[in-house]
């Protein structure tokens, strides 16, 4: 059995598409009004792309190489080509675009309007608004299931997680979570969503099929967002200047890792070996080794990095 | 780029009808840092500013009342000269770094036009018996929705916070260098 499992794993590794590019982070530097493209293996900024309007949210689509960035004070959506580092388009949007996610197929981009109870669905090819979903108050983080069928939206000022049918844009559920949920992350199976609750200092775990809460994990002060790797959850604690680590199976807290000041956006490398954390106050990206749970690097990136969303490719 | 008039009207009507929730805020957090060099060793400077329950070194603070000392979650109420109060909570106290981190729990935007405010005070060595004091703030503007009035916009928030820091740090320098404790 063990042999078969190893062969299976090796086959999977062979079959998995290998990207023809090095791992990069696309970090929204809100204060500097730019996107810093960070070479994560080299540990340095490879390019800077000016993006006006206090850019905050980011969603990278690996296969198409498109980087979608929200500017709440544009208000606008900026589309950057990851390979050429050029701005392809800048699309005015209504309201206060903040949270953003891209559909797995890359055909749609979902943008939360901080000032209204809605999520806009943008047609990625046509670059126009194709529809909107009604959600709760101050929608912030958005995540999409791997099959593209369901959106999860953190309704910050309603203390709920909205579940939205991606095809019809109908809100199919509003699951009560902790206080002031901000970031939301869905696991690779599309089974569970994790909200970071700024107001109650915890992470709520939601079963997406059952549409109910299966657990709550206490974390540090003012958690912002969650990343998942190697059977563990990692939550940035803005006021704690740390990352809380917890076990995804038992939901038991494991440890807290000190990082820079005001850690916000967080993401795991595709191989799950590293976690990257944007430190808004320190203007850096902390690198965590998920094996040792130690910080193995800190990369200066520019003023006011938020990296709110899926910022790696 | 101009918001359409109907949307704007609705937003204003909405804002007028709904009491502003304490934790609601605008889309972009701002940060500002002010610093001062003081001709005194860090321990001496920390002895003046390192007690969360004593903000008497700041010229606009009339009195400090609080509880919990310097423990996490300790509270203080600053009463300002000329009126107004600010309620604050200690979030992190690190005497080994000569630093503490606190947040505002409650303030009238007329007193300080910010929401979701937090700040760090830190004293660092600056060589040869000298110190550098940094005061770093993070906050959103006082008006949480689109199209803030001028007195509650980002610029007003930045100006107010920077002004408070500058006044405090300059007074601190003067007090310590002129032989105060």
From TrEMBL, chain A:
Organism: Salinarimonas soli
Signal peptide: 1-22
UniProt-listed InterPro entries: Haem_d1_sf, Host-pathogen_enzymatic-act, WD40/YVTN_repeat-like_dom_sf, YVTN_b-propeller_repeat
Name of protein: YncE family protein
Keyword terms: Signal
Record SUPFAM superfamilies: C-terminal (heme d1) domain of cytochrome cd1-nitrite reductase
Coiled-coil region(s): none
TrEMBL record, chain B:
InterPro entries in UniProt: Polyketide_cyclase/dehydratase (IPR019587), START-like_dom_sf (IPR023393)
Signal peptide, first to last residue: 1-24
Top-rank taxon, per record: Bacteria
Pfam family, one: Polyketide_cyc2
Segments crossing the lipid bilayer: none
CDD domains: PYR_PYL_RCAR_like
Keywords for this protein: Signal
Presence of keyword Signal: yes
Keyword Signal: yes
PANTHER family: BLL4707 PROTEIN, SRPBCC FAMILY PROTEIN
Protein name: SRPBCC family protein
Source species of the chain: Salinarimonas soli
């Amino acid at each position: 059995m063990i042999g078969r499992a190893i062969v299976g794993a090796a086959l999977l590794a062979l079959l998995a598409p290998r990207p023809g590019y090095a791992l990069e982070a696309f970090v929204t530097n809100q204060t500097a009004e730019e996107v810093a493209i960070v070479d994560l293996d080299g540990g340095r900024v490879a390019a800077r792309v000016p993006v006006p309007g206090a850019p905050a949210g980011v969603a990278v689509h690996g296969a198409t190489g498109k980087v979608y960035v929200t500017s709440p004070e544009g208000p606008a959506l900026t589309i950057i080509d990851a390979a050429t580092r050029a701005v392809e388009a800048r699309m005015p949007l209504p309201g206060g675009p903040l949270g953003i996610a891209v559909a797995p197929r890359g055909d749609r981009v979902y943008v939360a309007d901080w000032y209204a109870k809605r999520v806009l669905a943008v047609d990625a090819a046509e670059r126009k608004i194709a529809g909107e979903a009604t959600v709760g108050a101050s929608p912030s983080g958005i995540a999409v299931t791997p099959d593209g069928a369901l959106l999860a939206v953190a309704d910050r000022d309603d203390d709920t997680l909205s579940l939205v049918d991606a095809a019809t844009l109908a809100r199919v559920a509003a699951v009560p979570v902790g206080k002031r949920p901000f970031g939301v992350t869905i696991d690779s199976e599309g089974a569970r969503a994790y909200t970071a609750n700024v107001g109650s200092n915890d992470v709520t775990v939601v079963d997406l099929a059952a549409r109910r809460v299966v657990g709550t994990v206490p974390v540090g002060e003012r958690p912002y967002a969650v990343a998942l790797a190697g059977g563990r959850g990692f939550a940035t604690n803005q006021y704690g200047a740390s990352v809380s680590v917890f076990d995804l199976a038992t939901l038991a807290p494991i440890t807290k890792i000190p990082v820079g000041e005001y850690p916000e956006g967080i993401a795991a490398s595709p191989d799950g070996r590293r976690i990257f954390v944007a430190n808004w106050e320190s203007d850096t990206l902390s690198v965590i080794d998920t094996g040792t749970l130690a910080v193995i690097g800190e990369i200066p990136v520019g003023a006011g990095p938020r990296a709110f969303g899926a910022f790696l490719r | 780029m101009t918001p359409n008039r109907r949307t704007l009207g609705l937003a204003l009507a909405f804002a007028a009808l709904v009491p502003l929730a304490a934790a609601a805020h605008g889309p972009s957090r701002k940060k500002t840092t002010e610093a001062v060099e003081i001709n005194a060793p860090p321990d001496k400077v920390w002895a003046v500013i390192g007690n969360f329950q004593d903000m008497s070194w700041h010229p606009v603070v009339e009195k400090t009342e609080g509880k919990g000392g310097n423990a996490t979650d300790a509270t203080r109420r600053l009463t300002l000269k000329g009126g107004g109060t600010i309620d604050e909570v200690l979030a992190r106290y690190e005497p080994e770094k000569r630093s503490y981190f606190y947040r505002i729990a409650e303030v009238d935007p007329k007193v300080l036009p910010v929401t979701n405010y937090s700040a760090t005070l830190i004293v660092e060595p600056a060589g040869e018996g000298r110190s550098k004091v940094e005061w770093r703030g993070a906050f959103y503007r006082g008006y949480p929705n689109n199209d803030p009035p001028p007195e509650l916009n980002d610029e007003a928030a930045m100006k107010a916070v920077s002004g408070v820091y500058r006044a405090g740090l300059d007074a601190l320098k003067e007090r310590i260098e002129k032989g105060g404790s």
